[in-house]
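Forum: Protein Structure Q&A
Topic: Joint prediction for protein chains with partners

I've read a bunch of threads here and the consensus seems to be that you should model interacting components together rather than docking separate models afterwards. I'd like to see that in practice. Below is the full input, 703 residues plus whatever partners are listed. Could one of the regulars post the assembled result?
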Amino acid sequence: MHATSMHFKSRAAEKLADGDLRAALDGLKRRFVPARAAAIAELDDFEAVREAAAEIRDRALEHLDFFLEAFERNCTARGAVVHWAETWADVNAIVVAIARDNGVRKAVKSKSMVSEECALNAALEAAGIAVVETDLGEYILQLGHEPPSHIIAPVIHKTRDQVSDLFAAKHASPRKTDIGELTREARERLRPHFLSADMGITGANFIVAETGSTLIVTNEGNGRMATTLPRVHVAITGIEKVVPTLEDVATLLRLLPRSATGQSISNYVSLTTGIRDAAELDGPEQFHVVLLDGGRSRILASEVRAILRCIRCGACMNHCPVYQSVGGHAYGWVYPGPMGSVLTPSYLGLENALDLPHAATLCNQCGVVCPVKIPLPGLLRKLREQQYERGLRPWHERMALAGWARLAAHPRLYALATSLAAKLLCWLGGHERRIARLPFGRGWSGGRDMPAPAGKTFRALYGKQD
Amino acid sequence: MSSARDRILASVRAALGRSGAPPQAQQGALAAYIAAHSSGPCPGADWDLLARFQSRALLLSSTLDDAETMAGVPAAVARYLAAQGLLPQAVVSPELARLDWQGAGIHAEARRAQAHDLVGITGSYCAIAETGTLVMVSGASAPPSNSLLPETHIAIVHAARIVRCMEDAFALLRAEQPRWPRSVNFVSGPSRTADIEQTIVLGAHGPYRVHVIVARAGSLAAEADSSQCHARARQRS
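Posted by a regular:
Agreed with the consensus. Here's the joint model:
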């Protein structure tokens, strides 16, 4: 996917002014946040499950090579083929080659964020292979030539009216406004594709070392269609998705749908192992699993390794005050929100996503809701430090930080400077005790007034108490 | 020339501070971890499994009925189809071919579902009380299409095969299946989507309706299960 992550600030400003978007994003606070809270409360001991889940992911990462080799061994023992891809281009080349070898003319796709990383659809189309997105949200995006704005709810940025217009235009059918009718229209359009496609492409929420299985969770059933009907099934996923045992999967599944949509379980949890038996009446004749590195081994060696625990639930973005305000497109690449602000600079380079580690208030809502305990604010802070060390921040910010560092190291000077600042700000506040234009902080006071401080510093007041 | 596989594994190992595979002793410990299949925190030690399954299934928008024995299932199906205003005709999974469908006035064809089939009737491998979930295991007599393509899916669950949680379903599969099945589908209610304005709509791509008939007692289901197991074992030997 083409990245525009360098333009977060300007895109965020645009998105803030978009009334339709603000209305559409309201669903996060109205539905996802309370639904998650209720689903979590239903667990006897959320913290214990969360602790177990984080341990499972850490164990998998700590011995990633061992579990990947075990997965490969068990997967191929069942007649599947495991492919290893170092880059996004490698994934595309592998999938196009599988399609060509099998005379595939059309592929149906279940939602896969890894395929968004690779821009797989464009590669398949360039090779003359039709590809149809079948997740309702992804289908809407494909019709509208848009990237997803959320990893779970890809069209959360769109209103029903916008979908109505799009369907009426692209389907050349009477405009429908009822969400049930719109869904039915998509079902009727997509069913023939499922029945006629030669290849099904899916991602994998987890791959299981002990059985060599891939697992996907869906609500719509499109994932089941794509793994059941076409004669060739290709699953593409990142190497970090491996989990040792099915019991580990069961623990993670107590958290994934709850954290994502507030469901106790997704409608369909589909565990697929190998190719169909001779006696079976359906199922694919070929099963290929493509394992992508694509920067993951580099992250494994980095200070932000913990981000590889991520199980892609989307809770961090659902609860992020920045994401709630600007939506996913502002972040400029596949993964938005707090997890994306760690992943995008890590995949694309810190210098290609300068604003993202700063696109957070560090309020730690994301850290609190993360089902695998990824310390997201801590990781964002680490990326900020790396930016500073590599001289990637603007000169005035570096000067200010250097000045602050010197000041903070000299307690008397610090006390003097802060008491002067407190007095100055108090004076600026005037009778109203509000500051309309903050010196060196115009951006902050551009949209609101700052309450003026009392004129004395905390240190001065505290000193008086004795 | 090294392969992509070797380069990726080398890069992973370098990140983990190793130049090769984990030491033998550690590999043994990791293999033992897998073999132990230890579970995380599981709820419901005190559940009445049937009651829990039923209440959770209803929450998932499944509908419920029960039959005293497997022999009573066709009549329950006929009752449901009539109440829904659906024609008494269905595709049934071959595992249920022996039931007396004709006697209940249902035209049932035992085969894999096709695009035009409106009602699919299937068994289930087991069911999960924790979430009200059906466990569908693929096999020669249980094609996954039958619970997926038709607009209405009717599933038969034997009360004795309701297990507590997903971990118990995995343990049952390991104990009973000589070889891990190609597809294990955990089905929790009708297909749904909430992609447009987070509004839930039933019947996205899969069934609009999931109707669960619990066969409370009688050994017919258990017999059928065990005879299928033996038949499969015979096929393989």
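Chain B has a mean pLDDT of 92.
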